[in-house]
Design a protein that fits this description.
Layout (H helix, E strand, L loop, with lengths): L11 H8 L1 H6 L33 E5 L9 H4 L7 E3 L4 E8 L2 E10 L10 H7 L5 E3 L2 H6 L6 E5 L7 E5 L10 H7 L3 E2 L6 H7 L8 E2 L7 H5 L4 E5 L3 H8 L8 E4 L12 E4 L7 H20 L2 H14 L7 H13 L16 H17 L10 H4 L13
Parallel strand pairs: 1-4, 1-5, 8-9, 8-10
Antiparallel strand pairs: 2-3, 3-4, 5-12, 6-12, 7-10, 7-11
Amino acid sequence: MTADQGAEGPTPVRIAAALAVLLCAAVAGCSGAPAPPAPAAPRLPAATGDERLSDVCPATVVVQQAWEPEAEHAATYQLVGPGYTIDAARKRISGPLVAGGKDTGVRIEIRPGGAAVGFATVTAQMYLDRSITLGAVATDLATGTSTSQPVTAVVAPLAKSPMALMWDPASHPDWNTAADIGRAGAKVLMAQSNTATALLTGKGLVRPEQVDTGYTGSPVRFVTDPTIAQQAFATNEPFVYQHELTTWRKPVRYQLLADVGFSVYPEALSVRTADLEPLSACLTRLVPLIQRAQLDYLANPAPTNKLIVDAVAAFHTGWTYSPEAADYAAATMTRLGVIANDTSGPLGGMDPARVQATIDTFAPILARDGARVRPNLKAEDIATNRFLNPTIRTR
């Protein structure tokens, strides 16, 4: 793994999560399953005006996700209309791109990350395969690849990262924050390539000698030694450990790393920077549809969660995802403000000051680990709000 991989994509945590035998044994449905039949394809009304994409966008809008199908990617899966297909062999989902029940005149194809792409980064895939229109790229990854594989984010479906530090409340009833962990001197299990580690130690929240970068995604260390703290995703592990991991079956507590300065936009949909202008007419119409899709998902997550769970079962990569875990993720993203209006205003926005602060924080860390960060990198080099509809917001 390299520093270029970013904290929200194929880190060792998520690679191992896809392969860990223990979780497969603990969670029902680990074996593969054929893709269920897609919903019957009704004749949808044709979109008109700004919702019509056929005259400005590619015939197929290809989206490369950073990881296996999960609720955090719902803004794009929400756009997949009736009559879709799940290609289990090629690990792709495709169908008409539908907005508000209307056919936009183009198709959408969603490609998962993780095992399907050999755990490569999204930016690497975008530059290897030019048919990819949009890729889900975290701000730290965009910073780290700003010289070799530059990308520009055009919409951020998630307002903050769900990455967290997790602990056992029975072992540590007095812990409430990462600072409590640091004061206690407990071991903190992190993935080797997680850029948040340097943030925690740099802020003095955790001492360097407390950090163990041997986290592989397996629950064994935490289960056998519940005195440690461990990185997690607040949208997944708390539910899985309490309800699906048979060797634990107890609550955990956590603090979001976003609350202590981990300021990345984790799933920002991005284009190759050189394609920003050629795709501008398409993005002007498409980006607001992605914003609205996220709102539609929040209003009724069940159909899109079913698509996501069905795709996971059909792809059979080792990643498991239950309907209950998807429902938990949807509710948790709302409760924790992972999906929320950005401080810049609209849902999907990216505050330039926050992007710049993220660059300033992580560029030295990434450069130290070997990434080629563009000199004098600015927020506008890796993110733009120009295509957003500023009136699209959650209530």
